[in-house]
Design a protein that fits this description.
heterodimer, A: alpha/beta, Ubiquitin-like (UB roll), six-stranded mixed beta sheet, globular, B: alpha/beta, Methyltransferase, Methionine Synthase (B12-binding Domains), Chain A, domain 1, Rossmann fold, five-stranded parallel beta sheet
Chain lengths: 492, 210
């Protein structure tokens, strides 16, 4: 028995009794479900026969007329660091470099000299299986591995076809594909079970550079080889390797701290003599998930908040009415709330504020607010990253002031206001003048790896040299983390 | 010595003041160490209250736990000879399949500060290991911690293993952590549940004193 589902001018068919989210997933029109369809995050809202419901909690048991919010194009960061690319002489064809993120994917087409011909990006289609790596691992272990593998391969194939079309070259002209990703994304793409990532000691599987025929993954790339970039640990992946390579921090005598804040905060600290990598379970809060009115940085998201005439003043992407708040807006909002005494140093919203469903809250606009729990989520994320930085410095035997430069990689790092990040202590306030955003450094790394065997050899060398610090096993971790969930005492 | 000030400082999580007072207590070898420890325990009650009210959150509990461990360490030399006997022994662990131990560690420091001897079996603990330890150490209070929703299954498996070993009648079981609730307690067959370490502490004290 099937029911008809009208969506705009399209008719889909759902099996009686199945979950609406499943139907939409099958048809490739599913909304995001950061919680993986448990009904807890409230993000897969659709309108069924005029009534707002959660797709994951709705059973297909009648014909439906469906409306869903217009697919919101998230702004995806494709611009990388300024790097000089010198390609090997013996490359005859075109090259592809891919940054496969948990949330977004970016694909670059390069000619044989490494010059960028085209770029395309899209959301990772696995988003419907959950927002973060942990939910994805659970989904894969619950029997969804094959479909997750297929959907990301198809998604990337589309991007490859798109960049080739843009540049008027054939997909057969591609000679090599270099892809960077975190270990979970990498393994799911390769159809390797991520069960190693669900158990201590979280050992990585892909630990050395390897090439395989690309056709086994992307059937349209008949003549290419596919480059597997090694992972540093189960939670510090080839994408971090890409950042290390493109920022050239491994060459410097001075100490660099590279921070890639995403769902996991990956961090590398050190210089040419000694580098330490680690990852913190920052959680997806800073990307807008787990936040009541959180969303990605797309049209309608509050992306910046300042304080004017005794009240918050917001900036909304696309200059439209605000529908939610994204990570950069969240950091700003918490910073202004802290500076203006709306929250105390422990993150408690002071009692004079509004209440929502029994929870304290603070209104940023007429209808966009942050709840007490939202603030707590920020504190946990902030605490994890700040504790990581503190403990890595200790491990290297340096003071925070010895850090010469703080490089922020990734989308989040490009959009946050460093001053707000320091105000809430996400980054050490003392380092504010030394912070610099480096854009999609992972993608830049993928480009370098695509064009040069020397860089590939370098990544194999770095994998062996870089020390991995498991933060949770440092005796002082718990204490440092607990302390760092508070905001800094001194106002910036 | 103003033990009210100490109590309040613990309640405020004011590390500097707490350590300062404790070090003063130890200046004469710690003749008042027992009173100091008790003040710290009462301070923890304040922390528990603040947590219940939403003024504090889990980050503050973590810090409170660490602060108590530090406090006990400072007072220990003076407490050794006195009559602070162990109230009793409990088993504490994170259940099988779950690797999160922050919550468990907070509970351990708070129980220890209250004179409870804690056998900590660590993370990812198989039910059989818990049963074996119960028998070997003659323990009748078991505390199961977990963060993942999956942990509820392991909690149930552990309770079942204790029942199968014929120990259920003489054992009290408490579950704690993110996924637990009144419902989860019924589902797993445990005797009590807690989100607040002070509640866990109170349950243990009640059970052990019987």
């Amino acid at each position: 028995m099937k029911y008809a589902i009208q969506l705009q001018n399209q008719t889909l068919y759902g099996e009686a009794g199945e979950c609406l989210l499943e139907t939409l997933r099958r048809e490739g029109v599913a909304p995001d479900a950061p919680c993986g369809g448990k009904g807890t995050c409230g993000k897969c809202k659709v309108t069924v026969n005029g009534q707002e419901v959660l797709a994951c909690q709705t059973i297909v048991d009648r014909d439906m007329t469906l409306e869903r919010p217009a697919a919101i194009a998230a702004s995806i960061l494709s611009v990388g660091t300024d790097i000089s690319i010198s390609a090997d002489d013996n490359i005859m064809g075109n090259l592809i470099a891919i940054d496969l993120g948990t949330t977004t994917m970016v694909c670059f087409l390069l000619d044989k000299t490494g010059v960028e011909l085209a770029v395309a990006s899209a959301l990772n289609p696995q988003g419907v299986y959950g927002a973060d790596v942990i939910t994805r691992i659970q989904a894969a272990l619950d029997g969804k591995q094959e479909e997750m593998c297929t959907c990301v391969r198809e998604g990337l194939s589309k991007l490859i076809a798109e960049v080739c079309k843009k540049a008027l070259v054939s997909t057969g002209s591609i000679q090599r594909i270099a892809l960077v990703a975190n270990p979970c994304m990498q393994q799911l793409l390769m159809d390797i079970s991520p069960k190693n990532l669900a158990k201590v000691p979280f050992s990585p599987i892909l630990t050395e550079t390897k090439t395989i025929p690309a056709v086994s993954i992307f059937p349209i790339c008949t003549n290419a080889e596919f480059l597997i970039v090694p992972d540093l640990s189960g939670y510090v992946g080839a994408d971090t390797m890409g950042c290390i390579i493109s920022t050239e921090m491994y060459k410097k005598e001075t100490i660099t701290l590279m921070v890639d804040i995403g769902t996991n905060g990956e961090m590398v600290m050190g210089n040419r003599d000694h580098m330490i990598a680690s990852s913190t379970a920052a959680g997806p809060a800073l990307e807008g998930a787990n936040i009541r009115l959180g969303m990605r940085g797309s049209v309608g998201a509050i992306d910046h908040v300042t304080w004017k005439d005794g009240r918050p003043k917001v900036h909304v992407i696309g200059d439209t009415k605000a529908v939610g708040i994204c990570g950069s807006g969240l950091i700003d909002a918490v910073a202004v709330m802290l500076k203006n005494g709306i929250i105390n140093q422990r993150g408690r919203i002071q009692s004079a504020q509004t209440q929502f469903e029994g929870e304290r809250a603070f209104l940023l606009t007429e209808d966009i607010y942050l709840t007490q729990n939202d603030i707590r989520q920020v504190q946990l994320a902030k605490g994890a990253i700040a504790a990581g930085i503190e403990l890595m410095a200790k491990q290297l035997g340096i003071k925070l002031t010895d850090i010469d430069e703080v490089l922020l990689a990734g989308a989040f790092g490009s959009f946050i206001d460093p001053k707000s990040a320091c105000t809430i202590g996400l980054l050490p306030p003392i380092l504010l003048p030394r912070i610099r955003a480096v854009g999609n450094a992972a993608g830049s790394g993928a480009k370098l790896l695509a064009v040069s065997k020397e860089q590939q050899a370098l990544s194999d060398k770095l994998v062996k040299e870089i020390e991995f610090l498991e933060l949770a096993s440092v005796p002082d971790f718990q204490r440092t983390f607990g302390k760092q969930t508070n905001f800094p005492k001194e106002a910036l | 010595m103003d033990f009210n000030e100490l109590k309040q400082a613990v309640g405020d999580l004011d590390e500097e003041v707490v350590l300062d007072i404790l070090n003063k207590v130890m200046e004469d070898g710690g003749s008042e160490a027992k009173d100091a420890l008790e003040a710290c325990q009462r301070g923890l009650d304040i922390v528990g209250d603040m947590f219940d009210k939403g003024e504090y959150f889990v980050g503050d509990l973590i810090f409170a736990g660490e602060l108590m461990t530090q406090a006990v360490d400072i007072l220990k030399p003076a407490l050794a000879g006195t009559t602070t006997e162990s109230v009793g022994k409990v088993i504490l662990c994170t259940v099988e399949g779950d690797l999160h131990d922050i919550g468990k560690n907070i509970v351990r420091s708070i129980l220890e500060a209250n004179g409870i001897e804690v056998i900590d079996l660590g993370i990812d603990t198989p039910p059989q290991k818990i049963v074996d330890t119960m028998i070997a150490e003659d323990i009748h209070v078991v505390l199961l911690s977990g963060v993942l929703t999956l942990a509820l299954d392991s909690m149930k498996k552990t309770v079942d293993a204790i029942t199968a070993a014929g120990l259920r009648e003489t054992t009290k079981i408490l579950i704690g952590g993110n996924p637990v609730s009144e419902e989860a307690m019924k589902l797993t067959g445990a005797d009590a549940w807690a989100h607040n370490p002070q509640h866990t502490n109170q349950a243990c004290l009640d059970w052990l004193k019987k």
